[in-house]
Each structure stands twice: as structure tokens, then as C-alpha cells.
Amino acid sequence: MKLFTVISLLISLMCLSSTQTFADTLIAPTANAKMSGNNKVVALYGNSFTHYNNNLNTRLRDLTRSLLPNKAKGYSYRGITISSGQLGWHKQNLIFQNSLKHWDVVVFQGNSMEPISKKKGSKEYFQKSAKEMADIAHKADSKVVYLMTWAPKAKPELTQKLANAYVDIATQTGGYVAPVGLAFANTLQQYPEINLYHSDGKHPSLAGTYLAASVFFATLYNKSPVGGALPVDSDMTPETAEKLQIIAWETVQNFQK
């Protein structure tokens, strides 16, 4: 009887340990934690910020294929976007996409100013939606990554407010953060000649989307994007691409310290 009790206790402890290890991987211990595990199948929920320039998911796919062995066989990226959409508009999309397949990672991007908006109910709706959607994602065994958006070109002072808002919601919901907004700010400071913005001063230029893809590569795989392929159908120089890759890698490393 005693032997049976001891064996049962050992099995229970082993199961608990296994569950805890899985949970630590699935749920981010801190918003700036490094990601681990299998991050091959990724869905990105956003709006025109992720849709511009032939989609962030496409640029990330191309970059990943150029940097990982076997042209990243088995890796896939899907973009689900709604023009001008707020994060909560994607709740039903998330449920539907989860019914189609398992996603290792789901990326959540709020409307540009949504996390810090002064419009009545906007910030609260973002926070409520993030909590509900993160819960849905985690129950489906998917990690959550928030795309930290960038400040408008004319209002760089909003960078830190947006960064704080995304770190805060990630902390509340067990999510990771891809610090794209900080990478934008770092690029503008170090290389002001690189234009990261579309003519409206809000949406990304191709360079901005490529920078975002580089940040995501570094975040998802803990690897430097330096040496990655240039964006197809563009006149971006290798020198510019390398600058963006370095900024992305340095930003992610500093954010995760």
C-alpha cells in the first residue's frame, strides 16, 4: 500500500511538473520575456497597419524562409485584417480560425491609438477584448504576442505611451510583446534618412513593414534577422535592409533584458 502511494505521488508530481513547464511556455512570465518552443504556425490579427505593403505576414514569411534551414519548411503565416479595425472586431475571427487549425502563436494588433485613445470607451474596449481573446487563445494552446504599434510621424512623443500600454495589457493577459514601435523610434533616431511611413504619416512604408517583420523574426525565434533577404519587388538597398535588421535585433534584445 505504501509503495502504491509513493508511486502515485511520484506520478502526480511528474504530471504537475510537465503541466507547469508547458504553462510557463504558453503563458509569458513577463511581457518582455523571451519566447521558446514551437512558433511555426502564426496568425496575425490586425488592420491596415499589418495589411499594407503586401501584408506583414508575407514579409515575415519571406524573411523566415531566407534565414532558417530548409527554407523554413513547415512554417506558415496568415494575416487576418479588417480595415480600420479595432482588436475586438477580431474575436469571432479568432474563434473561426481556431476551428480550422491549431496556431502556435496568435498576434494581436489594436487600432493605431486604441490602447491609449481618449475616445470614450475605446481604451476600455481594447483591454476587455484583449483579455477575452487572450483567454480564447490560451485555451486553444496558442501563445499570444502583441504587436506594439508605432507613434504617428508627427507625434513621436506617443511612442512610450503606446509601449507602456502594450506592456501593461501583455502583463495582464500572459502575452509576449513584439516591440515594433520602439524599433520605429530607434530607427528614426539613428537613421532619420530612412522613411518608415506612408505619405499619410501613419501607415508604414515598405521599410516600416520590413522593420516590423524583422522585429517579429527576432521575437519569435530569438535569432538575428541580419543577413535576411531583401523584400521582393522593391528597390531597397542591402545597406538599408541591414540597418533595419540590426535595429530590429538590438531593439528586441534590449527590450527583453
Helix-strand category: alpha/beta
User: Please, what is the CATH homologous superfamily?
Assistant: SGNH hydrolase
Share in helix:
40-55%
User: Architecture, according to CATH?
Assistant: 3-Layer(aba) Sandwich
As an assembly, this protein is: single chain
CATH topology: Rossmann fold
List segments where confidence is low: pLDDT < 50 over at least 5 consecutive residues: 1-24
Mean of pLDDT = 92
Query: What is the number of beta strands?
Result: 5
Widest sheet, order of strands? 2-1-3-4-5
Number of helices: 9
Domain tally: 1
Write down the CATH class.
Answer: Alpha Beta
Q: What can be said about the biggest beta sheet?
A: 5 strands, parallel
Which value, in Å, is the CA radius of gyration?
19 Å
Distance between the termini: 50 Å
What is the string of helix and strand elements? HEHHEHEHEHEHHH
GO molecular function: hydrolase activity, acting on ester bonds
Protein name: SGNH/GDSL hydrolase family protein
Keywords: Signal
Question: Which terms would index this structure?
Answer:
257 residues; 9 helices; Rossmann fold; disordered N terminus; signal; five-stranded parallel β-sheet; SGNH_hydro_sf; 5 strands; alpha/beta; hydrolase activity, acting on ester bonds
Walk me through the structure.
This protein is α/β, with parallel strands linked by helices and 257 residues long. It has one domain (41-256): Rossmann fold (3-Layer(aba) Sandwich), CATH 3.40.50. The protein has nine helices and five strands. It has a five-stranded parallel beta sheet, with helices on both faces. Helix 5 links the parallel strand 3 (105-108) and strand 4 (143-147). The protein is globular and about 40 Å long. The relative contact order is 0.14.
